[in-house]
Amino acid sequence: MPAPFFDIRVSCMNIEEQLDFLSARAVDFIARDDLKKKLEKAQAEGRGLRIKYGADPSAPDIHLGHVVGLNKLREFQDAGHTVVFIIGDFTGMIGDPSGRSQTRKPLTKEQVAVNAESYQKQIFKILDPEKTEIRFNSEWCGKMSFEDVIRLSAHVTVAQMLARDDFSKRYAAQQPISIVEFLYPLVQAYDSVMVEADLELGGTDQLFNLLLGRELQKAMGQKPQCVMTLPLIEGLDGVKKMSKSLNNYVGVDETARDMYGKLMSVPDELMWKYFEYILCWPSEKVQKMNAQVASGELHPRAAKDMLGQEVVKRFIGEAEAVQASEEFTRVFAQKELPDEIPEVVVPAEEIGLLALMVQAGLAKSNGEARRLVKQGAVRIDDEKISDERAQIVPKAGMVIRSGKRGFAKVAING
Question: Do residues 197 and 50 lie in contact, with contact meaning Cβ atoms separated by under 8 Å?
Fold first, then answer.
């Protein structure tokens, strides 16, 4: 766990200073006065608050998009509060349409279990395990009877559900919305009741669900949770939200070379957001660097190199960050080969280019390999290959290159 990254000491701050610090970079904050009262009461009783954060294990990887929320959770921990990290193993089998035009495909129990285990290992690259309470919402949802579900549903109206932006758009477009989808935000709200959350944190696409948790707590006799949302970070394409399914993500468990290389492909205008929300640099520092780039005092590549090195240093190590930077320069600026190239072992007999690329792990399918060839991204040694139907006679030491970061070296079997 990279504890030195979080070196701001907030224990000596007064409550107003804590509120300023904890709400920095937030988009929605409901409500400051409520959180102030909670902090005052907790301080008087010598305890911390319970900060809820929910994650459906829809994929096994934590990426930099998740890091935005995890950073804020760590700041709450540094202020003396407990993070209640809810892994939605129950809701993950329903499918959440938040911010989507259609329902996310539900997962099987087996998929959820594998992804949940991976989540638990990765979140502690950021969170303090001693101040983290891991909960699975199947603990309470899995025990509910049909009568319990009906009684819970009585607290919410159809009009309330249709006030949610994505539901209202789909309803207006006459796209189907299942009753199951209405149950998703209700279950998420019920999680807040069960863990007695003082504040729930989420992305801006979760605002409706977070507010529903506040209302349900009131209806069930609890003090309503405060709500805080953080911005959604665009992925490497600079357009859509970072997502594994869109393949525009940087995973926190990736190799230093892949992590650095991906970050060097980020659009120039997006890197400032990464500095502020992933590395938590003060806005003034980011703005100063941005101005230096705009004036020509600092080259955009130098700024992006700094971003890549800082992210790698945070999640892997300083030596690995320097090595990744040097290798990137050597490979892409000086057109040399990387130090380590994965091998593909094949017989010394003719093979189709597309099949060779798939076997080498440079493409997931013949279709993807074909697209790379058409884009002019495939080379064998120094020769660009533009014929997707090419037949290759493998030779020991032959290097196949796909795109900017894909390399494979041929070894002959037999």
Answer: yes
